[in-house]
């Protein structure tokens, strides 16, 4: 008998008050304070893994972006465990590998392809402008080339922002609600566009916090990365979770399982 549980498609994202971006960060900090040592170890392992993947010959430039959603999914599983009153473990970081490795890796592949496509489009615009400027020559040509390069940078920035919107909720939707990778990215972009002001506020706050965290030799990132994971979980919960049926965690499933019969006891035959 097929026991795979089918989940309804996720609903449209709800409305979010822009000021709640600060509350998400506060929730992330609250989750961090519940297990700061474990969170810091997770962040350190994440850095080491991404750095090791980045120096791989030939494929290092592609491996880290593909693996990132898998590790983010694991940190989200840890945030969910803490939110449910369970203990955070270091190996929660690898929960994405155990539960949704294929789908999370696909999110990473789409992330990489989107970044390459954005770069190619921007390069095509800038390159065509430079060639046009060379044909025109002299001062007018320099103006055309400079304008085209600026347009290429602007186009890349817009496409990159859209890609970040598609990635923001995708690991949470895949990891915490079994949404298909491409559907998760579409829904994530839709949620961010639907609540654009809230996520602009959040992006601004994160930009400032990253610079602050980098001041003490980058050590502040060991706290900021878990806080961002907790903020992402809080943002997902407010934007989607009120309308979604909750999924039990693997730990909860084990806890709710009926106890095994004592040795020697034979269940009655029917």
From TrEMBL:
Instruction: Identify the Pfam families for this entry.
Output: DUF7847
Alphabetized UniProt keyword annotations: Membrane, Transmembrane, Transmembrane helix
**Residues of the DUF7847 domain:** 41-254
Superkingdom of the source species: Bacteria
- Does Transmembrane count among this protein's keywords? yes
Question: Transmembrane region positions?
Answer: 38-56, 62-82, 103-131, 151-176, 196-213, 219-236
Q: Which InterPro entries match?
A: BPSS1780-like, DUF7847
Q: What is this protein called?
A: DUF7847 domain-containing protein
